[in-house]
Design brief:
The complex is a heterotrimer of chains A (263), B (349) and C (300). Chain A is mainly alpha-helical. In chain A, 79% of the residues lie in helices and 0% in strands. Chain A has twelve helices and no strands. In chain A, helix 4 packs across helix 6 and helix 7 packs antiparallel against helix 8. The longest helix of chain A is centred in the first third of the chain and has 34 residues. Chain B is an alpha/beta fold and 349 residues long. Chain B is built from 13 helices and eleven strands. By secondary structure, chain C is mainly α. Chain C is 71% helix and 1% strand. The N terminus of chain C is likely disordered. The chains are: A mainly alpha (263), B alpha/beta (349), C mainly alpha (300). Chains in contact: A-B, A-C, B-C. At the A-C interface, helix 1, helix 3, helix 4, helix 5 and helix 6 of A face helix 1, helix 4, helix 5, helix 6 and helix 7 of C.
Chain lengths: 263, 349, 300
């Protein structure tokens, strides 16, 4: 048993190495003075300087943030009530609603992107940041509904019953009991959806219009044109930004948030 | 818990307000914006920056690496570009479908600077819808350790298995195969095309990667020894390593292509588009473009201003003898669908 | 979750789900229906859709099924098969890599470290997927880091060409999907009742036996969830095979994207997209039935 234990520990360490090695390498070589990929020839901040002088990149970052913010806001507004309905109520069409909310997550992104661009074309909707937001909201609402519903399902209904026994109407019960209890779930889903939106490439590639290039689209075109350390620099900055976001989240919301993760 | 919730909600809300700000800015400055859709590595930054400084028009540049992408965007009817740069045969497709606007020559005084050899082509008689921009050949960039390359055969040679790169472009790939078969690149006979497809299928295991934008870098970095590619970018890496690399247009002949500037039907910033088009035809600007991207331009007045090294580079400005054995790609109408299907078969195996 | 008996809780449900229904109805269901309609059409000469002259005749002749019939041709079945195989391989590798670490984290790791360690598994997921794929390009190139290390330490004399191979694609896929397998497995393992393992030990079962007969069956829900979360996206992906595979292998995701962007055959692409969707739905239905049989331990 001791032997197995050590073996498992070793395997675990290797997996962490596998998970982090590429990222660490990426970061380290963003400071490499040589353009030729893997020879270390001195420390430099040139690639970062070049990056900051790049207006296209800044535009892409701004677009990504705007899209993610709008998407998260709308998705939470649409998804939370739906989650509430699914978790707390019985009604006709409940199964259909569930199916509706699960479908966007299940469908391969390629299919969703293709369907949306066909639809926008047929509807005469010009491709723009708005179409990107719409596309992102479509899959985000599902994630919000799923996560918040899971959270609500885990709550003790006795608390809400107690509130009602004490004379609170359904609205007040929601506002003063349900919502605060559901808040970590809502926030977890918001963070999840924000990240998914910022990171989305496939669907965005189908529906982005002029000037709506998001960061993943920009990175993809950088990747196609040639691998330069500027891409390393972008990666490092993104990584730093995400880690900061997570640390803030962890600090504000407690450890069990991270444990929930993407499932 | 409550406070942090409100804080985060506020942040998301503020960020999302950015969405509403965006369209407003564009409306105020609609005539001060230009949306360009162009090939990768085809427009030097300094040329764009200089234009912005001069006119105050903000230029958005999106890039693509295949003509089909242009067709796709324009056909969808909802892409918002003011300027596109289709190749010769693609124009032949776009014009009849009414996807590009007729050009008002009166607004383009610098038109007279263009080389008459590139005007009035079959794909756009009288240049009613387009202006030639850059032109070049498709050939083979190679590492000199394979010897001297003068035939397409080398791309199909098992000796170089795993060291070959092909353009990710159906017409160009079929072009190479057809030329090797001694046929025209505009072959329409389905039987011949299927034979060419068989050649490409047999070639597939030898090909390391299909890539239309990074071919020159991959050759220079040693990932491949033989790269099917466009002359400009290949000439650039050859110039950086002349004892190691070279470029050649095979003796069977290659593709000659002319890329042209056009205004899509749905363009909303017409004024900006015309100003930019005319700007691009100024001799100094045209020369800067050629010097920057290493592709030959169609601007005659710019010739004296081009770098001597580029002007004398036979890869970029080939001799008449080379040009004579090259063909322009032409649109094949219904046969295009067959080629698309065959190409899918090649890529799929 | 007992439904509340009071009638007032039945009425408010509809306004709650209305916004979501409207948004998804317009921007999700409608596009799908449209795509279904397009899948029955034929491609026009330059892409776009060939207008149907006589609708009734078109339907009666069965021509509307053209794209679907074509998709059952040998070539496309081969692509479908390869994609299934790739996705299955990715899933299997993901399980092989994830199970030990999930087990360690859930059962063997000290309690105070669990949260942190789990968080560390998730952090890579929170970074850009494209960037992670790029990292592998950076490492696996002929002039990339792996070759520099292997040649520098004298282990190899020629660079090994890993980039633009199926192996590279597998590495990229497994790398990207790992958290989706580790987390459900962890969730399932964490809920495992240790006393059962103790009971097994008391009854004389060895380590391996108690694993196969106690642990594994009880973690099947987590395993099933992980399989679904990894297999489905792997089936439809195209970015990894495009970047790491050198645009050489055409999997289902590449094929569909190719039909829309390069071959410009929207009807055929739509038909393929629908078939992919149908395949995924069948898989999930199977999962749902399985989950129901096991009495609601579904993790989705």
């Amino acid at each position: 048993m001791k032997g197995t234990r050590r073996l498992l520990a070793a395997h675990t360490a290797l997996v962490y190495l596998f998970l982090y090695a590429p990222i660490a390498i990426l970061v380290v070589f963003s400071f490499n003075a040589s353009r030729q990929t893997a020879f270390w020839s001195g420390f430099t901040l040139d690639w970062y300087r070049q990056l900051f002088a790049n207006p296209l990149l800044f535009r892409a970052v701004r677009n990504s943030l705007v899209v993610a913010g709008a998407t998260t806001f709308i998705a939470v507004l649409l998804g939370t009530p739906a989650a509430l309905a699914l978790a707390r109520h019985e009604f006709r069409g409940k199964r259909a609603t569930q199916a509706l909310l699960y479908l966007p997550v299940i469908i391969p992104e390629v299919v969703l992107g293709a369907a949306l661009v066909t639809f926008f074309g047929a509807a005469g909707l010009r491709l723009s940041i708005a179409t990107v937001v719409i596309a992102h909201v479509v899959f985000s609402v599902s994630y919000v509904a799923i996560v918040v519903r899971a959270r609500l399902a885990g709550l003790d209904p006795a608390l809400e019953e107690a509130a009602r026994d004490l004379g609170a109407g359904p609205f007040e019960t929601f506002r003063r009991v349900t919502l605060p209890l559901a808040a970590p779930g809502i926030l977890a889903s918001a963070l999840l959806v924000f990240t998914l939106s910022i990171d989305d490439y496939v669907i965005t590639s189908f529906v982005a219009g002029v000037g709506a290039t998001t960061l993943p689209l920009h990175i993809y075109s950088m990747l196609k044109v040639g691998v330069t350390p500027e891409v390393n620099a972008v990666s490092t900055l993104l990584l730093a930004g995400t880690i900061v976001l997570i640390v803030i989240a962890h600090y504000l919301l407690g450890k069990d948030l991270l444990a929930k993760g993407p499932s | 818990m409550k406070k942090s919730f409100l804080l985060l909600a506020a942040i998301f809300f503020l960020v999302s307000c950015g969405v509403r700000m965006e369209p407003k800015i564009e409306m105020e400055t609609s005539s001060k914006v230009l949306n360009v859709y162009i090939w990768t590595n085809y427009l030097p930054r300094e040329v764009v920056d200089e234009f912005q400084r001069r006119t105050g028009i903000a230029v958005n540049v999106d890039t693509y690496d295949s003509n089909e992408a242009v067709l796709e965007k324009l056909q969808s009817g909802v892409a918002d570009y003011d300027l596109v740069v289709p190749s010769d045969y693609m124009l032949k497709v776009l014009i009849p479908q009414g996807l590009v606007r007729p050009l008002d020559r009166a607004r383009l005084p610098h038109f007279k600077n263009l080389d008459p050899r590139f005007l009035d082509q079959k794909f756009d008689p009288g240049n009613g819808h387009s202006i030639p921009y850059l032109w070049g050949t498709t050939g083979i960039g190679y590492n000199k350790k394979v010897g001297t390359v003068d035939s397409w055969r080398v791309l199909f040679d098992p000796k170089y298995s795993g060291r070959i790169l092909m353009l990710d472009d159906p017409r160009e790939a079929f072009g190479a195969a057809l030329k090797l078969m001694g046929r025209s690149i505009n072959e329409r006979d389905p039987g011949v095309l299927r034979q060419a497809a068989e050649m490409l299928k047999r070639q597939k295991p030898l090909v390391r990667t299909y890539n239309s934008s990074d071919f020159a870098n991959l050759l220079a970095a040693g990932d491949v020894d033989l790269a099917h590619g466009y002359n400009g970018e290949l000439a650039e890496v050859v110039a950086n390593a002349p004892d190691r690399l070279a470029y050649a247009v095979p003796k069977e002949g290659g593709t000659l292509w002319i890329d042209n500037l056009s205004i899509p039907k749905g363009a909303r910033n017409l004024d900006s588009a015309y100003v930019f088009l005319d700007y691009l035809m100024e001799p100094e600007v045209a020369a800067k473009i050629v010097n920057g991207v290493h592709y030959a331009g169609a601007n005659q007045a710019a010739l004296p201003l081009i770098d001597a090294k580029i002007r004398q580079d036979p890869s970029i400005y080939p001799s008449k003898e080379v040009l004579d054995r090259c063909e322009l790609i032409e649109d094949l109408g219904k046969t295009t669908q067959l080629i698309d299907e065959l190409w899918t078969e090649v890529k799929a195996r | 979750m007992a439904p509340d008996r009071s009638a007032s809780f039945r009425k408010p449900a509809y306004p709650l789900i209305l916004p979501a229904w409207i948004a998804l109805g317009i921007f999700f269901l409608a596009p799908l229906v449209l795509m279904l309609a397009v899948s029955f059409a034929e491609r026009g000469t330059y892409g776009g859709i060939e207008p149907v002259g006589n609708l009734w005749a078109y339907l009666r002749s069965g021509a509307f099924l053209g794209n679907y019939i074509r998709s059952f041709g040998a070539l496309y079945l081969w692509i479908g098969w390869r994609s299934l195989w790739m996705a299955a391989l990715t899933t299997a590798l993901a399980i092989a890599v994830s199970f030990p670490i999930a087990y360690y984290l859930a059962i063997l790791a000290p309690a105070r470290w669990k949260g942190l360690l789990l968080g560390l598994v998730v952090v890579p997921f929170w970074t850009s997927f494209l960037i992670r794929t790029y990292a592998w390009m950076f490492i696996l190139r002929t002039e990339g880091l792996l070759n520099h290390v292997l040649m520098g330490t004298g282990l190899l004399h020629h660079p090994v060409e890993l980039l633009y191979t199926q192996t590279a694609v597998l590495i990229g896929l497994v790398y990207g999907e790992l958290p989706f397998m580790i987390l459900p497995l962890y969730a399932s393992l964490e809920k495992l009742d240790r006393s059962l393992l103790e009971a097994a030990a008391d009854l004389g079962a060895g380590g391996a036996q108690s694993f196969w007969r106690v642990t594994l069956p009880l973690t099947l829900p987590g395993l099933a969830a992980g399989v679904v979360l990894v297999f489905v996206p792997s089936l439809g992906q195209f970015v990894v095979s495009d970047l790491l595979g050198g645009a050489r292998s055409m999997l289902l995701g590449n094929l569909i994207q190719n039909q829309f962007a390069v071959a410009r055959n929207k009807p055929f692409g739509s038909a393929l997209a629908f078939e992919l969707m149908a395949a995924v739905l069948v898989l999930l239905l199977a999962y749902a039935v399985y989950a129901k049989k096991r009495g609601g331990e579904a993790l989705l």
